[in-house]
Design a protein that fits this description.
GO terms for molecular function: DNA binding. The chain has four helices and no strands. With 66 residues, it is mostly helical. The chain has a single domain, classed as Orthogonal Bundle (434 Repressor (Amino-terminal Domain)).
């Protein structure tokens, strides 16, 4: 899997996790300070730190983002 494909997979999974929790992008931003718009579109690379914060926020581990 190349970097672009991995980024799109990650973007899709972030959106799925958010929707499973019934949250809006604004909810996540208000709770974490993380803007999800460009992340969920696969247009913004995500740092490891941000990924860890999202995993904690969604109550999951990093393996769920694959």
């Amino acid at each position: 899997m190349n970097k672009h494909e991995l980024l799109l997979t990650l973007a899709k999974r972030v959106k799925e996790l958010r929707n499973e929790k019934g949250l809006t992008q604004e909810d996540v931003y208000n709770d974490t300070g993380i803007h999800l718009g460009r992340i969920e579109q696969g247009k913004r690379d995500i740092s490891f730190t941000t990924l860890c914060k999202l995993a904690d926020y969604f109550g999951t581990d990093l393996n769920q983002f694959r």
